[in-house]
């Protein structure tokens, strides 16, 4: 199994948002997808046939990431890493990590194909799969031994679940493709495995994420794919009226995204080209109100003529952002924290999208997944790349003219980084075990002063 430093591939990573069941604002995690050997590369196609033309080309082979080197290097960001343990997974979808870094959810069994992951009309039910939850235990919590311990669930799960794109302190999002072609969205409890179905019915409801004000943002389309997917915003408990933005004719929304900015939501838009769009949210009741209503598309920018639901899935699930608590994270640079991080499929690297200017800032070549950090004097992004785990500072972004080349190498090989709210485990690192392609290593990382 080759390390990710030897291959350029699209990898889906965690989109970290705010927890909804606690008062403190903490990060949330989102799942991802590595490129698998023999996977088909999607070609440009319309929204109703997803990736049917996928067999025309091959995606490059390679794992999600290679294990982190525990040594800290002489860069502008120094870290220390504590190996904790390992978990198994299905070989296709990266685990979710709870906002406090104490739990991890991992999908097991049969891998889902690209059409199912991307919720195309060709999606199927991936029977023979299930989700396990693990507890990440530090030495102080486990008689001096760091470990990852499987949690015994008291509730049964339906067969064929997919790991969702977000989680909070209560549980993690799951999606259930149905035999009739529909797709449901649920929230699975970390400790018990019980699933509360948040969105059900006879439509394809997909790729949900949480907003800063604890609502659910997702896409919905008819089962037959006769029209493109709409953006839907609703309360977690289903109360109130759903807010819906319809796509332009012949197009489809895909892979919605959120940031700490409650006044703007984001999505990919699939049509003749693959676009990133910004959708406004306006306050109800004046400038002091915390209640927002969904507005309209106010920003659009194309990034590639290779456009399909599968490409949208790859582009929209590689970034992560942290929603800060205003008291504990007063030094967060909101200028960048409020921007979505996406895979720029036209340039095969990560990028930040600035909606007011409808402009991309390209990250260094070879970057594949990333997360925002504001830790001490470190303000910028930790990015997994072909050069290892690298750091790009805000000052580098500010001085860039559309594309970045400067970075500092942090670890010798790339890992997926997930911030948490617990100062005892500030970051969880996930990477593959080179001896077993269905095992992932789990480590805790801290940024040194």
Describe the structure.
The protein is mainly beta and 449 residues long. It contains four helices and 27 strands. It has helices spanning 114-117, 309-316, 334-337, 394-399, and strands at residues 79-88, 96-97, 103-109, 129-137, 147-151, 162-167, 171-177, 183-189, 195-199, 204-210, 215-221, 230-235, 243-245, 252-257, 264-270, 274-283, 292-304, 341-344, 349-354, 359-362, 367-375, 378-385, 388-393, 408-411, 416-419, 427-433, 436-447. Strand 2 and strand 3 (103-109) form a beta hairpin. 54% of the residues are buried.
Low-confidence stretches: 1-75, 321-329
Strand order of the largest sheet: 1-27-26-25
Share in β-strands: 35-45%
* Cα end-to-end separation: 35 Å
Based on CA inertia axes, which overall geometry fits? globular
Q: What is the makeup of the main sheet?
A: 4 strands, antiparallel
Quote the average pLDDT: 81
Helix percent band: under 10%
Number of strands: 27
Q: Helix count, per DSSP?
A: 4
If you compute it from the alpha carbons, what radius of gyration comes out, rounded to the nearest whole angstrom?
A: 20 Å
Strand-pairing-aware structural class: mainly beta
Write the layout of secondary structure elements.
Elements: E1 79-88, E2 96-97, E3 103-109, H1 114-117, E4 129-137, E5 147-151, E6 162-167, E7 171-177, E8 183-189, E9 195-199, E10 204-210, E11 215-221, E12 230-235, E13 243-245, E14 252-257, E15 264-270, E16 274-283, E17 292-304, H2 309-316, H3 334-337, E18 341-344, E19 349-354, E20 359-362, E21 367-375, E22 378-385, E23 388-393, H4 394-399, E24 408-411, E25 416-419, E26 427-433, E27 436-447
Antiparallel strand pairs: 1-27, 2-3, 3-4, 4-5, 6-7, 7-8, 8-9, 10-11, 11-12, 12-13, 14-15, 15-16, 16-17, 18-19, 19-20, 21-22, 22-23, 23-24, 25-26, 26-27
């Amino acid at each position: 199994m080759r390390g990710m430093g030897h291959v350029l591939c699209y990898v889906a990573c965690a989109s970290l948002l705010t927890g909804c069941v606690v008062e403190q604002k903490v990060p949330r995690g989102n799942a991802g997808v590595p490129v698998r050997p023999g996977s088909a590369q999607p070609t440009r196609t319309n929204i109703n046939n997803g990736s049917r033309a996928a067999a025309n080309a091959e995606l490059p082979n390679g794992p999600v990431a290679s294990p982190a080197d525990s040594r800290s290097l002489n860069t502008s960001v120094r870290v220390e890493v504590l190996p904790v343990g390992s978990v198994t997974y299905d070989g296709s979808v990266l685990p979710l990590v709870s906002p406090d870094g104490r739990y991890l959810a991992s999908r097991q069994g049969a891998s889902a194909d690209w059409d199912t992951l991307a919720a195309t009309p060709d999606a199927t039910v991936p029977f023979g799969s299930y989700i396990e939850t693990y507890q990440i235990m530090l030495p102080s919590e486990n008689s001096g031994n760091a470990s990852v311990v499987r949690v015994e669930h008291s509730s049964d799960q339906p067969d064929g679940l997919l790991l969702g794109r977000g989680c909070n302190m209560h549980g993690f999002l799951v999606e259930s493709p149905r035999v009739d072609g529909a797709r449901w969205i649920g929230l699975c409890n970390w400790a018990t495995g019980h699933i509360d179905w948040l969105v059900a019915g006879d439509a394809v409801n997909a790729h949900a994420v949480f907003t800063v004000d604890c609502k659910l943002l997702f896409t919905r389309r008819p089962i037959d794919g006769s029209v493109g997917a709409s953006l839907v915003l609703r309360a977690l408990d289903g109360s109130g009226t759903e807010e819906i933005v319809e796509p332009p004719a012949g197009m489809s929304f895909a892979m919605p995204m959120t940031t700490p900015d409650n006044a703007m939501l984001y999505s990919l838009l699939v049509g003749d080209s693959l676009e990133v769009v910004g959708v406004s949210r306006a306050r109800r009741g004046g400038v002091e109100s915390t209640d927002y209503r969904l507005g309209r598309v106010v920003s659009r920018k194309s990034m590639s003529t290779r456009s399909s639901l599968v490409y949208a899935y790859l582009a929209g699930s590689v970034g992560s952002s942290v929603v800060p608590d205003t008291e504990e994270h007063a030094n967060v640079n909101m200028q960048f924290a409020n921007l979505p991080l996406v895979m720029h499929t036209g340039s095969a690297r990560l990028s930040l999208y600035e909606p007011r200017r409808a402009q991309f800032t390209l990250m260094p070549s070879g970057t594949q997944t990333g997360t925002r950090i504001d830790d001490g004097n470190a303000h910028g992004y930790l990015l997994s790349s072909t050069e290892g785990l690298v750091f790009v500072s805000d000052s580098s972004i500010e001085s860039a003219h559309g594309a970045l080349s400067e970075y500092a190498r942090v670890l010798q090989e790339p890992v997926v980084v997930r911030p948490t709210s617990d100062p005892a485990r500030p970051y969880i690192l996930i990477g593959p075990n080179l001896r077993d392609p269905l095992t992932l290593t789990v480590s805790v990382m801290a940024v040194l002063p």
